[in-house]
Design brief:
Elements: H1 12-19, H2 32-41, H3 46-55, E1 64-67, H4 69-84, E2 96-100, H5 127-134, E3 138-143, H6 179-187, E4 192-197, H7 203-208, E5 212-215, E6 235-240, H8 243-253, H9 261-268, E7 277-280, H10 293-306, E8 310-313, H11 318-328, H12 332-343, H13 353-361, H14 367-385, E9 393-397, H15 412-424, H16 427-431, E10 435-443, E11 449-456, H17 461-475, H18 478-482
Parallel strand pairs: 2-3, 2-4, 7-8, 7-9
Antiparallel strand pairs: 1-3, 4-6, 5-6, 5-10, 9-11, 10-11
Helix pairs in contact: 1-2, 3-4, 8-9, 8-17, 11-14, 12-13
Length: about 500
Amino acid sequence: MVSAVSAPQNSPHKRIAEEQGNVVNNPLHLSLFELYTAFRNGNLTAGDLTEQAIAKHNSTLGAYKYWQTQDARSAAARADASFSAGEDHGLLQGIPVSVKDLYNVDGLQTFAGSPVSIPDTLMAQGPVITGLDEQQAVFIGKTHTVEFAFGGLGVNNHWGTPRNPWDSTAYRVPGGSSSGAGVSLQEGTALLALGSDTAGSVRIPASMTGNVGLKTSFGRWSLEGIFPLSPTLDTAGILTRTVADAVFSFAAMDPEHQGRALKFVDQASHCTTGDFVIGRGESVLWEECDSGIVESVETALDELSQKGVRVTDARLPEVGDAIELLKAGNVTAAEIHEFLSSKMPEWLEMLDPLVSQRILGGASMSATEYLKRRRHINQLQLSANARFESNDVIVSPTVPITPPKLDDVQQVDRYRPLNLMSLRNTCSGNTLGLCSLTLPVGLDTAGLPVGLQIMARHGAEEKLLAIALCIEKVIGTSKDRLGTPAIPPL
């Protein structure tokens, strides 16, 4: 029997579990920790939770590339058999998880948003998926992505674009490139969603759909088994409904916390408003935002200040360089073009028009220019990470624009400026080598979610999550700040 993650008899977790009682109502409304304890107390089965999640599937939202109810039920049965045998395989045992179709999963094809599946020679499963499988998480489906993850709005003309559930009348984009991930959380089919982030591809869809998104530091989690967009900037990440769920999931998945995951969950909960200083990011991150976005973020910061959090101005001038690199294509276009040319040349002829111009443009970058940009990125990362001496985190609006209507971004000339704006505030997290998180703080004047972006130095995920959890305790969760989305009927 595996028992390394069991809650100590006298821990706060044990007391909370005892207070739950013997009946679990509306299990999809429970936190991941509450589900963890309910499973182990015999108050809930993974099978029951999975059936509840399956019943929430709404095909009009279009979150999934693969919707695999049979496999999910089998995985839930496996988890329940382990629970019945007294086997505890991990914190996420029995939890429904959606997987971005950039991750290779044994037995499933990966399309990475392209019209044809990725060659089998590139389809090895990596440590992130293997780790979740070993914990006996329930993979409920693979979610849509922008083709090769190269876009911030979530649009895919090959397979269709998932619908943002916060507008029941207009078809709005959900953010990308992890476009189906946030939608899967809001519809209730997944309680944890896997994404990837090269310039904002976890944080943008999390912000636009009213969820929490964590971009890990470069190198913290393995990229093996995840289709590569930019080996220089790619990072793995997660989307969850709350910061508390993000803390729990990170603890369960992070290699550095194996065997002591619940200890970190406890430690993170001890952070108080007097323990950290928030720095307001560069002015460019606050400029040209759509109506209601800055106001929502300012309201949240005011509430934090009133509760004892020190909020100051912070200098992070490297943000300007990161944005200029974004506009120039950074190194991303060159790296994805080289990969496709070397490994999948036929795919260059099938590219979505919304990504083809940028990818094909990568061919024109000289080796000298590529190396110059790589050197510039390294220099920016060194100087940016040294600026977190007087501020524990630096904040800004996550996305400066309201999620556009799909009809408004179907043409390249209209898509490009809005795509760049969607990535403007988040690209710094990758180029400057930071870890970053977004959490929902309000609605803009169009009634769409607004996110607060929090950035911390490289490798400081523990501090970042503890501060974000404290912020959530002060200002409330997505349901407290946003209410619930008006999901279109089936």
